[in-house]
Amino acid sequence: MKSIGIDVGTSFIKVSLLDVETGRCQASYSFPSAEMPVKAVRAGWAEQDPRIWWENVGWCLKEMNGKHGLKDVKSIGITYQMHGLVCIDEKGNPLRDSIIWSDSRAVEYGAEAFLHIGKEKCLSRLLNSPGNFTAAKMAWVKENEPELFKRTCKFFLPGDYIAYKLTGNISTTESGLSEQILWDFTDDAPAGFVMDHFGFPAHILPEHKPSLGIQCHTSAGTEKLFGIPAGTPVSYRAGDQPNNAFSLNVMEAGEVAATAGTSGVVYGVTDKSIADQRSRVNQFLHVNHRPGDPHYGVLLCINGTGILNAWIRRNLLPGMSYDQMNEKASQAPAGCDGLHVLPFGNGAERILENRFTGASFSGIDLNRHDTRHFLRAAQEGIAFSFRYGMDIMKQMGIVPTVIRAGKANMFLSPVFRATIATLANASIELYNTDGSLGAARGAALGAGLYQSREACFSGLELLQTEKPQPLWKERLEEAYGHWKEQLDKQLSNI
């Protein structure tokens, strides 16, 4: 038996084929070879064409079918970039490019809703401010593109669009509604009062289903295109960060996961519904949440993470590989001799209360600093932003002693992972998994191909453990203090 996991990222589509019996990845395909474009027509905007996602999913599935055959596939899971808005007409066609997660245009719409619905009601029933999330983005469309809004049959998330293309079923998930800020945690139901506030008609919201469990089934058209048998269940759907946690077997209260790709995230599971009073970190339904058996994910997101590392490579060091960058960064001392980087150059940051500072370097000494310092300062600056956010999470009861991550992206850097471990005073465990493989495992569990959590994660392998560095501790704490002073100065001027 086989299970397919589809990961709809910002930069790439990745599809993995899991052998259910062995728990091992049989094949993975990623497309395109260069990053998918993000359209930024105005400052702070970010859009992608959903049809490009589907075309790239199709390329991966066709390649996989041609080389491995997909007639034995028994389940499909989908993970996706969170908070994106997809509007479709009555024929299921996208009416506009998706307004994706890093787009900042809806901040004022979320702030207005927070004010008029009321802080107490939002934080007690939504566990969040409407902020810059999907519902607020749809409110922007309603006001600025009224004719398009009138033609919108349904709106949902990027993963919901891919599920629709595979099955013909228009739906979303309960976890997905919570990430759109359209879930009422008090009633355990869609938040009708948010719909009413924004003036959305009830019919525009799709039916909702659990993230983990059979949701819909593939069509005859999917079998014809990709060789996946018609009637194969889509049995798992989750945003990239809940899915990253699931991929790492982070399922129960007290367990914590992290990722550091284009954006960076720390995600802890709790059984308590707690809101940050300033909405700097957010709480959503975790993939295994059930009424009477609550599982919530507390999510710290930093938009300006790997994108800073990529910007440096693309614009300043185009001939250097990431491995070479990591090696060079390790040659500079901890604290970088006073050079500091604020990495917040990828849109408004939730941990900064939806403010946009931009990325910046400070403390440059032209007689002391060279490429090594700049590379390490960038990685430390990202790690410092993680520490800044984790201090907020501690106030909500998330105090990790172990952080699980995939051995990928910035966690490949010894400097980055050791800095995080030292500042968090927690060990970091690195595993052989990624988003698409996690979605394939989730689909197999949701379809009943695995009968237990233990069986589902039998193929998950611990590759490496990074422990705090006592010799770095004092210097990093001092550097973090100076970094935080620079951030506070920036924020006081906004």
Give the SSE layout:
Blueprint: E1 2-8, E2 13-19, E3 24-31, E4 47-48, H1 50-68, E5 73-80, E6 86-88, E7 98-99, H2 107-117, H3 119-126, H4 134-144, H5 146-151, E8 154-156, H6 158-167, E9 171-173, H7 174-179, E10 183-184, E11 189-190, H8 192-198, E12 207-209, E13 212-217, H9 220-226, E14 233-239, H10 240-247, E15 256-260, E16 264-270, E17 282-285, E18 296-302, H11 306-315, H12 322-329, E19 340-342, E20 360-362, H13 371-394, E21 402-406, H14 414-424, E22 427-431, H15 435-446, H16 453-456, E23 462-466, H17 470-492
Helix pairs in contact: 1-6, 2-4, 10-15, 11-13, 12-13, 13-14
Task: Explain the overall architecture.
By secondary structure, the protein is of the alpha+beta class. It has two domains: 2-248, 2-Layer Sandwich (Nucleotidyltransferase, domain 5); 301-432 and 463-492, ATPase, nucleotide binding domain (Nucleotidyltransferase, domain 5), CATH 3.30.420.40. It has helices at residues 50-68, 107-117, 119-126, 134-144, 146-151, 158-167, 174-179, 192-198, 220-226, 240-247, 306-315, 322-329, 371-394, 414-424, 435-446, 453-456, 470-492; strands at residues 2-8, 13-19, 24-31, 47-48, 73-80, 86-88, 98-99, 154-156, 171-173, 183-184, 189-190, 207-209, 212-217, 233-239, 256-260, 264-270, 282-285, 296-302, 340-342, 360-362, 402-406, 427-431, 462-466. The protein has a six-stranded mixed beta sheet, with helices on both faces. Strands 15-16-18-17 form a four-stranded antiparallel beta sheet. Strands 21-22-23 form a three-stranded mixed beta sheet, with helices on one face. The longest helix is centred in the last third of the chain and has 24 residues, at 371-394. The model has no long low-confidence stretch (mean pLDDT 96).
